[in-house]
Design brief:
globular, 292 residues
Length: 292
């Protein structure tokens, strides 16, 4: 009797595991790709340098390593699986522009499955020209060989995906608001919105108005209304907040690693746009909104 019972439990466990895998895989593959990317990839030095600037300010080096050699985030993320940022110099050479665009802007991997840890929502509003420049740079970057294990999703993550509790990256991309500023009417605000929606929404919510984080470190960016232009420049260049607050956690790290490379014009445009958020109500009911 005990043997039969144990056999039954084992059979149920096997069936349950197979079902969980199947449902999570269905969710990961239930994606609709946009029309194929047709922008030509430039080879001139100016475009490659533009791509380098985008890679720096949008965080490619932060996740994929100082030489784009890739990194293992398994210990930091602790998802029960293995989270790997691939070697981008190798990856960009291995895949065509269509596959690279799908991963970067749509959150869809080269195998047609939705990605889980790549923050594609931060790149969703990149223009075709900027994306092409980014790809050009990645392909021009020297290849630094590195030994990286193969990534895999843990069962906890698969369960959350299967139950609809955790969205994959293509789900998040679909939630990114469209750009609203009209460059013909106000080019400064249009440029600033573009900067914010391809830079700041990685942490501050897809609409920039705050995101869920236990320590409240990703606030509504309407807070920028409290900053003078000089304060804002110091925040973005040095990671130092109002009143000389020198340890802003992730913001200090990101500012010194990424935002210090922003041009003066980019800073002014971004500041001008973020100043306008204080006059607009923050939309309610967003799944990424920080809970006070």
């Amino acid at each position: 009797m005990v043997l039969v019972t144990l056999s039954g439990v084992l059979a149920i466990s096997i069936v349950g595991t197979a079902l969980l895998f199947a449902v999570s895989e269905w969710r990961l593959r239930d994606v609709l790709a946009a029309p194929e990317f047709t922008q030509s990839i430039p080879a001139d030095s100016e475009s490659i340098e533009r791509g380098r600037h985008l890679a720096r300010t949008r965080g490619c080096f932060g996740c994929h390593g100082p030489q784009l050699e890739g990194a293992d985030f398994t210990e930091q993320w602790q998802t029960g699986g293995r989270t790997i940022a691939p070697n981008l110099a190798v990856h960009a050479r291995k895949h065509d522009a269509v596959a690279l665009e799908a991963a970067i802007r749509q959150g869809i991997g080269s195998d047609g499955r939705a990605l889980w840890s790549m923050p594609s929502y931060n790149f969703a509003r990149l223009t075709d020209e900027d994306l092409a420049a980014l790809i050009a740079f990645l392909r021009s970057a020297p290849v630094v060989e590195s030994e990286l294990p193969k990534p895999w999703l843990g069962w906890k993550t698969r369960l959350q995906i299967a139950m609809g509790e955790e969205g994959h990256m293509a789900d998040w991309v679909a939630e990114v608001p469209s750009l609203r500023a009209d460059s013909a009417v106000d080019p400064v605000l249009a440029r600033g919105e573009y900067m914010a929606m391809t830079t700041c929404n990685e942490c501050h919510g897809l609409d920039l108005r705050g995101a869920i984080h236990p320590d409240g470190s990703t606030p509504d960016l309407a807070i920028v209304a409290a900053y003078t232009e000089a304060d804002f420049r110091r925040l973005m260049k040095e990671g130092i907040g109002i009143g000389g607050r020198a340890d802003l956690g992730l913001m200090t790290l990101v500012a010194t690693d990424r935002f210090a490379a922003l041009t003066e014009q980019e800073l002014l445009d971004l500041y001008a746009f973020l100043q306008t958020l204080a006059d607009a109500p923050a939309p309610l009911g967003m799944q990424w909104r920080r809970v006070d």
